Amino acid sequence: MRHDSELGPPWRDGESRRSRLVFIGRDLDRAELEAGFRACLLPAAEGPAEAEPVGAARA
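^ thats the sequence. predicted structure below, dont judge the formating
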């Protein structure tokens, strides 16, 4: 398993802000994995009004 905790570069103006998860394995149930992750998403209306930029200083 690989896990990095370093921040990447800042988002560019107009850049699609997406993250990807990659699963490598055998006999994984794609539909079940996708359904589980989709169940964790908030509808856009319920999300934060403004997202804090990655790497922003916290008070």
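Residues 31 and 48 are 28 Å apart (CA to CA).
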